[in-house]
Amino acid sequence: MSADVRQVADGTYLVHGGHTNWVILTDGDAATLVDTGYPGDRRALLDSLAAVGSSPEAVAAVLVTHAHNDHLGSAEYLRAAHGTPVLLHEAEVPHARRDFLQQVSVGTVLRNAWRPGVLPWMVHVLRTGGTEQHPVTAPAAFPADGALDLPGRPVPVHTPGHTDGHCVYHLPDAGVVISGDALVSGHALSRTEGPQLLPDLFHHDRAGAVASLDVLATLEGDVLLPGHGPVHRGPVKDAADLARERAF
């Protein structure tokens, strides 16, 4: 699979991988990588870095929205091969180590196999290593509150629910919110287009995920970069409000 790299703002790129997105923030050839796709997306991930004039060696840090397999796929590879720090919310650090797992079980997916789109999605998940575990050996919590001293100056914002330590990343100067799985614009198992929560089976705490939409609604921006689906343009508050309406 080749990388589908879309520049959405100055130095900001949304990359569509195998049903999952990641984001590259650049400053010269240096980069911040937000999420890493499935394990099977590694070639596309490396190609996407080259496409924006960067390289694995130039990645200052991997920021993780949450430690599900389709976002964590190459984080440990980059840490082990290139010494890249892997940073995430303190509540997500043990999840990244796989001290526990807050992810939909194979049994739950199989019980939903009758739903439209589930079987093709399951095949894709298996082909891209989505059931493999690639724990991060030495994940680290953010070193301080506020903007991180990394390309793009992303500001982590805790949005628990999908997992306990889920974070979105706000780029105030660019008017961009990298929303991970707290707010998406599409998914293979959804018949809805535009701002929405993921289907219920994917959330560790659905009520918490709904509540975190209120946090997202406070973030100034008009470009939403979700973990699944295309870029969404328009006030982030409106997107969060629409997702909340659709959740009930």
UniProtKB/TrEMBL annotation:
Keyword annotations of the record: Hydrolase
Annotated protein name in UniProt: MBL fold metallo-hydrolase
Positions of the Metallo-beta-lactamase domain: 19-228
PANTHER family recorded: METALLO-BETA-LACTAMASE DOMAIN-CONTAINING, METALLO-BETA-LACTAMASE SUPERFAMILY PROTEIN
UniProt-listed Pfam families: Lactamase_B
Superkingdom of this protein's organism: Bacteria
Listed Gene3D superfamilies: Ribonuclease Z/Hydroxyacylglutathione hydrolase-like
Keyword Magnesium set for record: no
GO MF term (any one): hydrolase activity
